[in-house]
Amino acid sequence: MKLKIAIAQMAIALGQPEVNQATVKKYAQQAAAAEADVLVLPEMWSTGYAFEQLTTIADQGGARSQGFLSEIARQYQLNIVGGSVATQQGTSYYNTMYVVDDQGQRVSSYHKAHLFGLMAEEQYLAAGEQINTFTLAGVPAAGVICYDIRFPEWLRTMMAQGPQQILYVVAEWPIQRIAQWQILLQARAIENQTFVVAANRVGHDANNQFGGRSLVIDPLGQIIQQADDNDEALLVVTIDTADEQAVRGQIPVFHDRRPALYD
Ligand SMILES: O=C(O)CCC(=O)C(=O)O
């Protein structure tokens, strides 16, 4: 099955959801014009890492973000992996991914499970506890957020419940470790025999320059297409899920696993 995927490698205006919504709309329009099936946004696309303002800008229950994503999904007939946004659930704050289909229906929500100490996430946010698997545009998939990719066991937990044919990754990955971003993602693709579709932001905030290099990787770990490290871009890539089935058929790592040895 062929799937056309558009990744919005965008800069993010710190603490300004309306400005960022306008940017996302622009990319949704371009993705629709390119006849993409799926649009993928970066981590914290709505506000960036504006943690000091969380109490005023976090989305209560995620309602505003889900409403916005549903609206553009319907308007532009796009399935959307909605990056992530800061949400408030009860008295806790989370880094939350929403995925909506092209009818505007939510197909999953996920709170980032591994909080990133170098950006002080754990001082402000609570960590998620649940995996994130879903079917989008007819393709079984999983989704994780940024630092999560350094925990192959967490991704394996999701991928082993599959077969998931695509691993979606959304990030605000700094430029100084951008080589690691690429290597980690290629390894996750190879070991899980999956396509990896990864969206990173560009631009900067007070403390970080972000490194772009959004990319799509095939199940052999080869980069199909990659954006550069500096510029905003809409990366449009067509994948064929038959490629994943061929790789999985050759080396049956999921069948050959011995989970009893690992825990
Ligand atoms: O693991 C890294 O180097 C970057 C992680 C990160 O920036 C994040 O999780 O927000």
How would you explain this protein's 3D organization?
Residues 3-241 form the CN hydrolase domain. Belongs to the carbon-nitrogen hydrolase superfamily. NIT1/NIT2 family. It comes from Leuconostoc holzapfelii. This protein has 263 residues and is α/β, with parallel strands linked by helices. The chain has one domain (2-261): Carbon-nitrogen hydrolase (Nitrilase/N-carbamoyl-D-aminoacid amidohydrolase, 4-Layer Sandwich), CATH 3.60.110. It is built from eight helices and 16 strands. The strands form three sheets. Strands 1, 2, 3, 4, 5, 6, 7 and 16 form an eight-stranded mixed β-sheet that branches. The protein has a six-stranded mixed β-sheet with strand order 8-9-10-11-14-15, with helices on one face. Helix 1 packs parallel to helix 3 (63-76). The longest helix is centred in the first third of the chain and has 17 residues, at 17-33. The mean pLDDT is 96. Residues 116, 119, 146-147, 150, 172-174, 177 line the site of 2-oxoglutaric acid.
Q: What would the keywords be for this entry?
A:
single chain, 263 residues, Carbon-nitrogen family hydrolase, eight-stranded mixed beta sheet, C-N_Hydrolase_sf, binds 2-oxoglutaric acid, six-stranded mixed beta sheet, hydrolase activity, 30% strand, Nitrilase/N-carbamoyl-D-aminoacid amidohydrolase, 29% helix, 16 strands, alpha/beta, 8 helices, C-N_Hydrolase
- How much beta, percentage-wise? 25-35%
Characterize the main sheet: 8 strands, mixed
Structural category? alpha/beta
CATH-defined architecture: 4-Layer Sandwich
N to C succession of SSEs: EHEHEHEEEEHEEHEHEEEEEEHH
The tally of domains stands at 1
Q: Which percent bin holds the helix content?
A: 25-40%
Text of the CATH class: Alpha Beta
- Under CATH, the homologous superfamily reads Carbon-nitrogen hydrolase
Q: Low-confidence parts, pLDDT < 50 over ≥5 residues? A: none
Oligomer state equals single chain
CATH topology, anyone?
Answer: Nitrilase/N-carbamoyl-D-aminoacid amidohydrolase
> What is the strand tally?
16
Mean pLDDT: 96
Approximate shape: globular
Distinct small-molecule ligands in the complex? 2-oxoglutaric acid
Radius of gyration over alpha carbons? 17 Å
How many DSSP H or I helices?
8
Taking the alpha carbons of the first and last residues, their distance comes to 36 Å
